[in-house]
Known about the structure:
The complex is a heterodimer of chains A (293) and B (342).
Chain A: E1 2-7, H1 13-18, E2 23-27, H2 38-50, E3 54-58, H3 64-79, E4 83-87, H4 90-96, E5 102-106, H5 128-141, H6 149-156, E6 162-166, H7 172-180, E7 184-188, E8 190-196, H8 201-205, E9 223-227, E10 232-237, E11 240-245, H9 249-255, E12 262-266, H10 276-291
Parallel strand pairs in A: 1-2, 1-12, 2-3, 3-4, 4-5, 5-6, 6-7, 7-12
Antiparallel strand pairs in A: 8-11, 9-10, 10-11
Helix pairs in contact in A: 3-4, 9-10
Chain B: E1 13-17, H1 21-30, E2 34-38, H2 60-72, E3 76-80, H3 91-103, E4 108-111, H4 114-122, E5 129-131, H5 140-149, E6 153-155, H6 162-171, E7 175-181, H7 200-208, E8 220-224, E9 226-231, H8 245-250, E10 255-258, H9 265-283, H10 287-298, H11 303-306, H12 309-320, E11 340-341
Parallel strand pairs in B: 1-2, 1-10, 2-3, 3-4, 4-5, 5-6, 6-7, 7-10
Antiparallel strand pairs in B: 8-9, 9-11
Helix pairs in contact in B: 1-2, 1-9, 9-10
Amino acid sequence: xxxxxxxxxxxxxxxxxxxxxxxxxxxxxxxxxxxxxxxxxxxxxxxxxxxxxxxxxxxxxxxxxxxxxxxxxxxxxxxxxxxxxxxxxxxxxxxxxxxxxxxxxxxxxxxxxxxxxxxxxxxxxxxxxxxxxxxxxxxxxxxxxxxxxxxxxxxxxxxxxxxxxxxxxxxxxxxxxxxxxxxxxxxxxxxxxxxxxxxxxxxxxxxxxxxxxxxxxxxxxxxxxxxxxxxxxxxxxxxxxxxxxxxxxxxxxxxxxxxxxxxxxxxxxxxxxxxxxxxxxxxxxxxxxxxxx
Amino acid sequence: xxxxxxxxxxxxxxxxxxxxxxxxxxxxxxxxxxxxxxxxxxxxxxxxxxxxxxxxxxxxxxxxxxxxxxxxxxxxxxxxxxxxxxxxxxxxxxxxxxxxxxxxxxxxxxxxxxxxxxxxxxxxxxxxxxxxxxxxxxxxxxxxxxxxxxxxxxxxxxxxxxxxxxxxxxxxxxxxxxxxxxxxxxxxxxxxxxxxxxxxxxxxxxxxxxxxxxxxxxxxxxxxxxxxxxxxxxxxxxxxxxxxxxxxxxxxxxxxxxxxxxxxxxxxxxxxxxxxxxxxxxxxxxxxxxxxxxxxxxxxxxxxxxxxxxxxxxxxxxxxxxxxxxxxxxxxxxxxxxxxxx
Lengths: 293, 342
């Protein structure tokens, strides 16, 4: 099992490199307009690998222009492979087939999980028929679109061996199926994407005019979205809305009952994990939970 | 801008949604080239997240009636496999469902998941397959992968610009379809989990808005570096493509799709008729007449729009708010004015 830190830029790289993490995931998971330049990517790659950390490159959903930009990045990374490329776009998976030194690693946006839904639970009602309906729905609600061997086989035919999933403890028993069918599992801690747009909500809210010229306010802050009547709290960060589940020790122990290959800790204004000490505290929590399982 | 529009351009098919036999009759009479529908999957009736069962044709018997009527009028019928994901638990139900739909004479299937695609191939089904918007096709490489996987058409993601659509069509060897009216989601369809119709508090909040809109239109309080109260921060939905029809036709797409499987057949028929007539004007090279008609629609004075109070009101409001499909990504300003600094 390895522990990764996911970052979009070099702002906190020094703290990350000083931490006890094994791998650094660099790149933009959700926004194509935050894809780094080739020069920045080269710089990040050098800094990370020079410090003996493993490098992985993460990418979002892509338009025609972005896929051409990422192609240049793949050309560079292929010369330095093997490297995991986390793809959230089927077009990039198609492109990755041409790069022998790059390992396609499926991003979580390509896995459908109904339980990402932010509204609590499934259905209500006290009658026996309602209760039975709820049981039937629960069987499906906590599964994922990879809970079928034919789907897994489809992606394996495209050389996919690794997949990103979310920290949703009720889904863990179903994640086990995916591992048993041959995928290596990476679990993202804290933030579960609830919805994603190309018409960036934060940018529109703050009056940004063009995506290409966005001042990227999301690099420094996000918003909490609240509605008392709905009983939920959501988090708006750039073009994504998340719900958040903090990893508890008890749930971490549950997670270790399935074979998890990678834990991913995201560093961004929502998780508020900023420095080496805070990163190491979480890494310690994960490692100690494993030893106590 | 569009004055150079020529007759003889390749015209896209007009696809309309239906959820009943009566709705299908109205929509076909209104001029749809093809219709598409969901059909209730018997073993999965309880699994409802986004649409109520009223959005689906309830039985295979009714689907059969729809298909027979449509075929009599040379209209193709496509069925969409309703669920964006597929698990072992669902396999038996989905296999039976596909078989039952095909037994009724369907012309094509719309598929939103690689697992469903795999079992369809295993079943050696001999109908064209269309990749649903759940695949979030936003670039020509994705279309290439879907073509290799066996699809003969792809429905593109809504969050694209006309130039992006055009480039995808230029690269594609298979049919490309786009949505044109209703339900232009604020978020990317295949990765949105906001809607859950069975959560009572959400249903109440939406009812209180007196709207049929999805949860992205709900107001929220915002807290962060800046704060705001009751802001529709997630509202960026598009609605209409009437003004962009000439440009969309020029992209070379094969199909224009109207959204609205949950809407009344009467409403869908009116929308279908409007688009049918506008497309036909462009087909005949009557660009001046097209423009005149568009201006009437925007002003709420078009006879079809004016005869329906709801249609007149919504079209006017949506035009004022510029809720147009395929516009620049940050062009909608739904919530900025109320925001205040700490």
